Amino acid sequence: MSLAQESESARRGLGFALVTQGRENDALLVWRSSSGMPAELMTWGFQAWKEGEYQEAADWLERAAGAAPSLGDPWYYLGMLYEETGRPEQATEAYSQGRERLQLLAVGRSEFYFRLGQLAKQKGQSSNWLTSRDLFTQAAAFYAQAISLNAFSEPSSEAITHFDLADVLNRLGRDREALAEYEWVLAHEPQNYWANVRLGLLVWELDGDSTKAETLLLRALAVEEDKKWAYQYLGQLYLATGRQAEAVEMYRHVLALDPRDVGAQESLNSLEVEE
Question: What CATH number has the domain bearing residue 207?
Answer without folding.
Answer: 1.25.40.10
